[in-house]
Amino acid sequence: MITREEKASVLRALHVPGTPVVLPNVWDAASAKVVAARFPAVATASAAVSAALGYGDGEGMPAEEAFAAVARVARAVDVPVTADVERGYKLDPARLAARLADAGAVGCNLEDSEPATEEMIDLAAQVEFLGAVRAADPHLVLNARVDVFVHGSRDVEEGVARARAYLAAGADCVYPIGLPADRVAEFCRAVGGPVNVAHTPDGPTPAELGGLGVARVSFGPGLQRVLLAKLEALVDVVHDGGSPYRR
C-alpha cells in the first residue's frame, strides 16, 4: 500500500513546466471518483466544496466541514489528493498541517489575501506562514496562491516577486490566479519554477497552457458551475412537464 509520503512524491513529480499536471477540480466523493479514474491526482476547489455544502466562498464554511469534505474525497480515491484550504481557516501552521494529514491530503492551496476583506497579506508575513507550514510537514505539496491579479495591484512584477519569495520559502508551485493569458509565458519565465494557471472558458486550453511553460492546470469551481447549469436546464424541462431523459 502506497504511503502518504509516496503519494506526496508522486504529486510533486507531476509538476513539470511545459508538461503540466491537469486537475479538473472536484467537490465531493462522486466527482473525485470520476476524475481519479482518468487523471493521476485529484484536487478540491474551495468554492465548489462550499457551494455543495451550502456556504459562501471565502472561508464561509466551518473548518470542521471543510476538512471533513477533504477526508471524504481522500477516502474515495487511491490517487494523491491536494486540498484547497483557502487561507487555512485561522489555524496555526502546525495545526493546519496536522488537519490536512488527518484528512488524507498530501497537498494544499494557500492564499495570500484575507478572505473576509480581500486585502493582500504582507509579503513577509506570508513568507513566514508558508515557511512554517513547510516546516510542520516537509512532505506536503504546497501550492502558494498569488492574489495580486484579483485583489491587489495587478502588477506582474509584484506577482513575480511574491511567487519567487514563496518558492524560496518552501512552496512547490505558485498559483497566480487571474493572471492575464497574454502574460502567462512571461510570468513562467520570470518565476523560474512550477506555475499553476487556471483554465477559463475564454482562455488557453490546458495543452496551450503547457506550451506557455505552465506546470499545473486547474479549473477551480468551473466544472461544477457547468454541471449546475445543465442541471438547471433539465429541471426546467421537468417543471414544464417534460422528461429530462428524452432530450
Could you give the order of the helices and strands?
HEHEHHEHEHEHEHEHEH
Helicity, as a percent range: 40-55%
Average pLDDT score:
97
Separation, N- and C-terminal Cα atoms: 44 Å
Q: Specify the overall morphology.
A: globular
Record field, number of beta strands: 8
Q: What is the number of helices?
A: 10
Radius of gyration: 18 Å
Strand order of the largest sheet: 2-3-4-5-6
Strand content: 5-15%
Which parts are unreliable, with pLDDT below 50 for 5 consecutive residues or more? none
- Give the biggest beta sheet: 5 strands, parallel
Helical/strand content category: alpha/beta
Protein name: Isocitrate lyase/phosphoenolpyruvate mutase family protein
GO molecular function: lyase activity
Organism: Saccharothrix mutabilis subsp. mutabilis
Keywords: Lyase
Task: Draw up the topology in text.
Blueprint: H1 4-13, E1 21-23, H2 29-36, E2 42-43, H3 46-53, H4 63-76, E3 81-84, H5 93-103, E4 107-110, H6 123-136, E5 141-145, H7 156-168, E6 173-175, H8 184-191, E7 196-198, H9 206-211, E8 216-218, H10 222-239
Pfam families: PEP_mutase
Protein name: Isocitrate lyase/phosphoenolpyruvate mutase family protein
Keywords: Lyase
Tell me what you see in this structure.
The chain has 10 helices and 8 strands. The chain has helices at about 5-15, 30-35, 45-55, 65-75, 95-105, 125-135, 155-170, 185-190, 205-210, 220-240, and strands spanning about 20-25, 40-45, 80-85, 105-110, 140-145, 175, 195-200, 215-220. The chain has a 5-stranded parallel sheet with strand order 2-3-4-5-6. It has a 3-stranded parallel sheet with strand order 1-8-7. Strand 7, helix 9 (about 205-210) and strand 8 (about 215-220) form a beta-alpha-beta unit.
